[in-house]
Design goal:
With 122 residues, the chain is mostly beta strands. It is 0% helix and 57% strand. The chain has no helices and eight strands. Strands 1, 2, 3, 4, 5, 6, 7 and 8 form an eight-stranded antiparallel sheet that branches.
Length: 122
């Protein structure tokens, strides 16, 4: 299956500065859910843009053929960590078509907030 796009944009990025728990499943985060339906692995590059500084990246990942991969922005560290409590946006590029979804978990309060939306295919 060769479905998806090679370039995706997420205009709203924000990693909440706090969490209600310390276990990974309750840590506030932004995540990319990447689906590769194709027969080739996808080489993915992510650039992160800020309002007050130069962009960060590229962050590089591989998504195997016919697989999904979930990446948390708050776990990016090469070439540098993404700062928490800072607005950002991202452009995701792949050498083969992929599908990208964006999810945010905000667990600063006991009443958790979860937001998820498809990224913008460009």
């Amino acid at each position: 299956m060769n479905i998806g796009h090679k370039r995706w944009v997420i205009a709203d990025g924000y990693i909440p500065p706090a969490s209600t728990g310390t276990r990974r499943e309750l840590v506030s985060h932004d995540a990319l859910c990447i689906l590769n339906c194709g027969l080739q692995e996808a080489q993915v590059q992510i650039m992160v843009f800020f309002s007050d500084r130069e962009p960060a990246g590229p962050y590089r990942f591989t998504v195997e053929a016919a697989r999904t991969r979930h990446l948390r922005f708050n776990e990016f560290d090469d070439p540098e960590p993404i700062p928490h409590n800072t607005d950002y946006a991202s452009v995701i590029e792949s050498d083969v078509p992929i599908i990208v979804q964006h999810t945010r978990l905000d667990s600063r309060q006991p009443e958790l907030a979860l937001m998820s939306t498809i990224a913008y295919p460009a």
